[in-house]
Amino acid sequence: MMMSCNQKENKLSVEVYETSEAGNKLTKITDFVPVENVATITLNPKKTFQAITGFGGAFTESSAYLLNKLSQKNRDTIIQAYFSEEGANYSLTRTHMNSCDFSLSQYSYSPVADDVKLEHFTIKDDMDDLIPMIKDAMNASKDGFKIFASPWTAAPWMKDNNKWVGGKLLPKYYDTWALFFSKYIDAYEAEGIDIWGFTVENEPHGNGNNWESMHFTPKEMTDFVEFHLGPKLEKDGYGDKIILGYDQNREGLKEWVDEMYRSESSSKYFDGTAIHWYESTYEVFPEALQYAHDKAPEKYLIETEGCIDSEIPVWQDDAWYWKKEATDWGYDWREPEKKYLHPKYAPVNRYARDIIGCLNNWVDGWVDWNMVLDTKGGPNWFENWCVAPVIVDPEKDAVYFTPLYYTMAHFSKYIRPEAKVIGLENSDKDLQVTAAQNTDGSIAVVVFNEGKTKKSFKISLGEKETFISIDAQALQTIMIATN
Predict the structure, then answer these.
(1) By CB count within 10 A, which of 227, 271, 415, 464 is most buried?
(2) Does the 54-416 domain belong in CATH 1.20.140.10?
(3) pLDDT class for 2, splitting at 50, 70, 90?
């Protein structure tokens, strides 16, 4: 049947990329098979929400160490896959200050006890693995990317328990610890690496006293930032560096943002709030996100860490990543009344639904955890095994791009920094949808069909529309050029 001129004029021009349980991996789709009960997704670019800061993952010593174990060819393949324009084009990244659980051992940049002025500050532990990985990523990236750094703990000598794990920063070292952040900027800039900002402390509630941690209450962190860290960075000419408070699970947001933004003098030093996803395997906590946004609508709200935790990665078996077989820490360890938040889940589903849910609730950045892990889910000195989007077997010089890599790319590649999340109406509650308009005018619509049946929908923009079908268990990015 021939299409009339009028139908052609009213047809929306789109490019559709799909990743699916059936085997598509960011595959361009052009043929759409009609099914009954077509839903409608109506886009409204005039209604705008948050501006996007970026999407990406974390540079960890473990990931960097593994890259150094691979052939140059495979190392380059992975770096290009994450950072090139042809790849996932990551735009927002994280790294750790001092060691974390995804380090080879425990170390600090301030190894000399009572070195109050940090005259012996050194990043020598980062020189072999971490810094070369960051530099290679910078070389691969056309547009560049932002890096924020997070400490897991100060050196034991600065803490009340004199240990790597748990305890609090001694008040007499608050100024020393603020100086530490400034010294870190200096040291990394000397290596040609610009630090965009910081989270004040990774997981200030602690993490069950398992690996590097340091505890803050909301008031203690806010006092540290308002009276020590903020003024110190300002004094040293780094007042433009971003400071993100909290940096743990979303459910606890209210008490933290209430304290962080308690006054003008505290608010001025906090540029935003950092959050993690480990409170639940499926719940986005929209009320908490909405509360944090309403408390400080002009500030950042960034997901700074999420991964499939407490799992050894499944090697070269794409099907596993789509099946509800994975569990997380809470499946075994959560108190009985909270266990309902941790059912078995499918890893791809968890990533896709969480990122879409975050974008639809004011989150402006979403950062994955490790970029590369081995077949065991490490190296991790505490044996806290996790999954990464790229798994490698250094012994065999083999690389496996899991479906999680393509899931991340559906967002990072097509929704670019400064894009604005836009309004939409979606008539099918079983389709999860978000949309953002890039600064070049293009619109990226991300649709997730978590169900077991193929679905069809019309995308409508102004007077134009187009028909699209999405496979069962599939994620699509639909690119619309508006110019």
Answers:
(1) 415
(2) no
(3) very low
